From TrEMBL, chain A:
The lineage of its organism: Bacteria, Bacillati, Actinomycetota, Actinomycetes, Pseudonocardiales. Belongs to the HypD family. InterPro entries: Hyd_form_HypD, HypD_1, HypD_2_sf. Keywords: Iron, Metal-binding. This is Hydrogenase formation protein HypD. NCBIfam families: hypD. The keyword Iron applies.
Length: 383, 379
């Protein structure tokens, strides 16, 4: 595949891996957090850790939109979806997220009209096609997806669509990163910064992480070579005693972000005073809600929602996993009670969740856990 | 954290499942997971969800816990593409399959030839020569007779091409809205003339894994044909009968051929997992050798799906011993329906029950059975 294979080249990866290993000081251990769930997914899907020396540990961060959604909000969304007038629309990875009484899939099986969409604009199409129904878009995600939700609301307003609304769960990335930096149990040597979030917010908002908190950060793309290169950049910074924000993903991320997108978001949405994050608790000014002027598109105002807070099951340690304090397999229910088919915690649901990525792809890592046995040689059969 | 309610279902799941013990080393945890994976599954849902039809873990659980439990017998227990049965010394294969694909017509085929080829292929994967098919139709009130005629004509052509006769059938009509146009069920009987015993449990370390051509064409074609995605690609379904190719494989490989499976719902990844578990072996696949058309790879990349899990309707997976592999591969590539056949991996002894992928990037990862269903009603 053109423009993709180039970023997945094994020989280049081996070369960068060798350079990374050469930069590692003997006896020192390194821990880098990839904030974004998309990075977590790439790391496991391509077996990226096989190119890293054992002294480098990748810590999986909170940047998986589905993972940080608290159970109470899922319950609220399902309550809206159960209204017989409603067509609920959501991204596919939302479908299996458990609330306190089942998931979207379960609600759908019980008769709720819940449809998977690839874009909020698809939800708008459904609204136009079903004027007698009330179409709600379950909006989740960090700054990456917020502008498209905001644009969709603007378009609905322009068209005068009266049967479309958004259940807004959009969150912002800096507050949880600050919360993680404040956490006493975590020793990090640097951050692999979120790529697509940064296309919107740019690189400037991370500056305090380097200048005040003393951690280098490299904004990285989503192909495996992007991530490997960003780890190399972090190692070079550490070796040279520098601590800066760098942009590895320059082909997509402008240093100053996307001003137009930020304006659109600002037009439609404002920060909430506080928002509950699964596993991280309540974080001030960490999520967005619709402004008063767009109340007509705000499902939270249009529908009666239970708004109950639901505690995670005690055994679920998603919070520790989301903060990087626990490796997925160190959770007491990982892979036994909590599996992708019967997830207890959200980290096991989304393909971007650290637990799901580790379970589905990383559960077997030859170089790290089974170095002794060798895989058979690649098969060559031919005439 | 204080809260208004707690989630009862989660506590319930926790009470039933074992907890991780005091040893939290990665190795110990992985060993416990493998133990849990091999337990007899149970259906926890109160209602059927689309995941139960996806061909992944939920489907396997439903089959095992509901159908196998009720119908248990030696022929069914092998859970092959069809049943291998014997009467008065005649070795037969018997299979059935229902078709609910949406849309009914798509580039490269329609529900009619799909229903014939699918059942022909299930027989072929048992090592049988397909002989007779049945066809049952559930028609929705209001369905156009002209469309029905088009579908039936397509079935007739496919049957002729595959050398089978449709010898019995059934018709039912349900009210508007009770079926989406039409559903078709076919069953088939074939005779197993070659002595080779094919069994998903027969793979052995050292064996070679072949596929008969590029994977994922059918699933991606259907997805695009639905027109919901604003994607265009020059692709057609791979629906085709495989019985002649399967016969050629058996003639070239003899009893060195261990397993034949057509990679339908759940794709090549699901088939390989079934083989790994049934044979208690590892299957190691080399990503760079897996044939995927650029159009399929591109669409799958955009949609975030893995071609390894996408359905094919005219591709098969062959597990054959290493010595016979070159002859089998040559026999396949010599035929027009197997020109693009290649070896994609090998069977190993460790870690048993798992499929591993050596990625093009140079890492190794697991290829597990799919949980959810990104592509409902693909066949």
């Amino acid at each position: 595949m053109k423009y993709v294979d180039e970023f997945r080249d094994g020989d280049t990866a081996r070369a960068i891996g060798t350079r990374i290993a050469a930069l590692a000081e003997p006896g020192r251990r390194y821990a880098f957090m990839e904030v974004c769930g998309g990075h977590t997914h790439t790391i496991y899907k391509h077996g990226l850790e096989d190119h890293l020396p054992a002294s480098i540990r990748l810590v999986h961060g909170p940047g998986c939109p589905v993972c940080v959604l608290p159970m109470g909000r899922v319950d609220d969304a399902i309550a809206i979806a159960r209204d017989p007038d409603v067509i609920m629309t959501a991204f596919g990875d939302m479908m299996r997220v458990p609330g306190s009484d089942g998931s979207f899939f379960d609600a759908k099986a019980e008769g709720a009209d819940i449809r998977m969409v690839y874009s909020p604009l698809d939800a708008l199409k459904i609204a136009r096609a079903n004027p007698e129904r009330r179409v709600v878009f379950m909006a989740i995600g960090f700054e990456t997806t917020t502008p498209s939700t905001a644009m969709t609301i603007l378009r609905a307003a322009r068209e005068g669509l009266e049967n479309f609304s958004v259940f807004c769960n959009h969150v912002v990335v800096i507050p949880p990163m600050t919360a993680i930096l404040d956490s006493p149990d975590l020793r990090l040597d640097g951050f692999i910064g979120p790529g697509h979030v940064s296309t919107i917010i740019g690189c400037e908002p991370y500056r305090f992480i380097a200048s005040e908190r003393g951690k280098p950060l490299v904004v990285a793309g989503f192909e495996p070579l992007d991530i490997l290169q960003s780890i190399h950049q972090l190692m070079v910074q550490l070796a040279e005693g520098r601590c800066e924000v760098e942009n590895q993903y320059g082909r997509v991320v402008p240093w100053d972000g996307n001003r137009r997108a930020l304006e659109v978001v600002d037009e439609v949405m404002e920060l909430r005073d506080t928002f509950e994050w699964r596993g991280l608790g309540w974080i001030p000014e960490s999520a967005l809600q619709l402004r008063e002027a767009y109340a007509a598109f705000d499902a939270e105002r249009l529908f009666t929602i239970p708004g109950r807070r639901v505690a995670d099951p005690k055994a679920c340690q998603c919070g520790d996993v989301l903060q990087g304090a626990l490796e997925p397999w160190e959770c007491g229910v990982f892979g036994t009670a909590c599996t992708p088919e019967t997830p207890i915690g959200t980290c096991m649901v989304s393909s971007e969740g650290a637990c799901a990525a580790y379970y589905n792809y990383g559960r077997f890592s030859r170089s790290r856990t089974r170095g002794a046995t060798a895989l058979p040689d690649p098969v060559v059969v031919g005439r | 954290m204080s809260s208004d309610v707690t989630a009862g279902w989660a506590q319930d799941a926790l009470d039933r499942a074992p907890r991780q013990g005091p040893d939290r080393s990665e190795e110990a945890v992985l060993a416990r997971i493998e133990k849990v994976r091999r337990r007899r599954p149970r259906v926890r849902e109160e209602r059927i969800t689309l995941a139960h039809g996806a061909g992944g873990k939920a489907t396997a659980t439903l089959i095992d816990a509901v159908f196998l439990e009720a119908f248990r017998n030696p022929a069914l227990e092998r859970l092959g593409d069809g049943a291998a049965v014997e009467v008065d010394g005649t070795r037969l294969a018997f299979t059935t399959d229902s078709y609910v694909v949406s849309p009914l017509f798509f580039p490269g085929g329609d529900i009619g030839d799909l229903a014939v080829n699918g059942t022909v292929n299930d027989l072929a994967m048992c090592g049988a020569r397909p002989l007779w098919l049945s066809a049952g139709f559930v028609l929705e009130e209001g369905f156009a007779v002209a469309e029905l005629e088009r579908i039936v004509a397509s079935m007739a052509r496919a049957a002729t091409a595959a050398g089978v006769s449709i010898v019995t059938g059934d018709t039912k009509v349900v009210g508007r809205g009770k079926a989406d146009g039409l559903f078709v069920t076919t069953a088939g009987v074939g005779v197993r003339e070659r002595p080779t015993v094919l069994d998903a449990a027969a793979a052995r370390p050292g064996d070679v894994v072949l596929v008969s051509g590029p994977i994922g064409d059918h699933g991606v074609t259907i997805l695009i044909a639905r027109g919901e995605l604003d994607i265009d690609a020059d692709l057609a379904s791979d629906t085709a009968p495989l019985h002649e190719l399967a016969a050629a494989v058996l003639d070239a490989g003899g009893d060195g051929v261990r397993v034949l499976r057509d990679a339908t719902r759940g794709g090549v990844a699901t088939i390989l997992n079934e083989i790994a578990v049934a044979s208690d072996v590892a299957v190691v696949v080399d990503e760079t050798t897996v044939p995927v058309r650029p159009e399929v790879a591109g669409a799958a990349e955009l949609l975030g799906i893995d071609p390894l899990y996408v359905a094919c309707e005219g591709r098969m997976v062959v597990v054959v011993d290493a010595e016979r592999a070159p002859a089998v591969l040559a026999a396949m590539t010599d035929r027009p329906d197997g020109t693009e056949a290649v070896a994609i991996g090998r069977v190993a002894d460790d870690p048993p029950g798992l499929v591993l992928l050596r990625t093009g990037f140079g890492g190794t990862r697991i290829v597990d059975v799919l949980v959810g269903d990104p592509l409902p009603r693909i066949c």
